[in-house]
Amino acid sequence: MNNFFLILLLALTLTNNLYGLELERNSNNQLILTANKCSTLKDELDAFSELYNWSNQNVCALPDVVNKGNGSCSANITNCLPEHIINHHGKKSKIEGPNCYNLALVMNNFISANRYSGYNEIDYFINDSGYCRNIDPEEERKAGDIGVIGKRIQHKSSPPRFVIEHTYINISKNLVYSKNGKDKNSSYEVQSKENVLDLYKLKDKSCHTNVFDSSCQYTSSYFRCTPYVGAYNNESEVSRKLLKFNELVDKLESELESQIYNLKLIYNKRSALTFKETAMQVNEFSEKELKGVKVDQLAGSDAYLAQTLIVRLDSIYDQVGYLHPTYSSYGNIPFAGTEWKQKRIEVSELQRIVFFSKKYLEEN
After folding, report:
1. Could you tell me if 85 and 177 are in contact, meaning their C-beta atoms sit under 8 angstroms apart?
2. Beta-bridge partner residues of 34
């Protein structure tokens, strides 16, 4: 994993692609897109406009193109970008966690918090939720589609299967929005699609297919998602309990996200106590109100909400684990010192609380 991350870092230091496309943040916090050719830039501006429309359900006024000489051009595209790119492009989390799976789910409004997302979470939303469909290879790919790189797993006694190795947000034929790994040194980047595919040995165009019985070690495919947007059922007692539990989990995620991006909150005693109190509320509500709920007998929005809560708590459990100093390497904490040991105990306790919050709902 470490070697792979080094490869990612090396790739991201290279020029974006032969078109010289690059998105940089200036001193005024504006995002400037540059290209070697003005015609290329104009094509990308159209793609970013489509991405904005997909994300914001609105249109943006295309910015003016500035000719920089020698054929190259630039444009301030800040007002034609989704909020997530404005806030996070080129930036990093303070501890390990937020990853490519999470970015795909946040950008598609399945979840709202930037944190670690585990395999069960991305697999459920893409393959099992019923709100994503695999795009036919001959179908036009659009801005906002989820790019999926699958890895072929072969076992001697069973047919090969493909697992989701990496996800990204498609922008155009040249660019994607991706976070390559959960490491705190991996930033969110609008980057070359070619570079991302090359990292997974996908130079062979025949492997750019949705046919999962391919002999390729890695394949790329695309999914188009339309998350649940209707009102959740609140007519039954179980429905109302699930909605209340969802509110508590939302609060827990929000507090967890704050710690991921602010190291001071991790060791702030008041903040740590507040987070633990919220985790306890989640745990206590799950034990008292959801124990005995038959998840496999739920239907409609109740079934969907219950399953999303299970996979979200699964990922929250993992993200809480990354608060451990061994993983996060934050601050100047002497290894195995008093403060280090205390934090280890706190994290283990928090993980136990989150684990049982999920278990009470899952075991039914």
Report:
1. yes
2. 22, 74
Question: Is residue 87 in a domain?
Answer: no
Lowest mean pLDDT among 36-40, 84-88, 115-119, 153-157: 153-157
- Has residue 132 been placed in a domain? yes
First-to-last alpha carbon distance for the chain, in angstroms, is 36
For 63, 75, 129, the CA distances from 80, given in Å and listed in that order, are 8, 11, 30
Question: Rounded to an integer, what distance in angstroms lies between the CA atom of residue 266 and that of residue 95?
Answer: 10
The Cα–Cα gap between 1 and 28 comes to 36
Give the structural domain span for 315.
Answer: 237-362
Site of tokens 């072969």: 154
Asked if 221 and 244 sit in the same domain, the reply is: no
Both 188 and 301 in one domain: the answer is no
Query: Phi and psi dihedrals of 192, rounded to 5?
Result: -65, 130
- Summarised one tens digit per residue, pLDDT across range 21-66 is 999 999 999 999 999 999 999 999 999 999 999 998 899 999 999 9
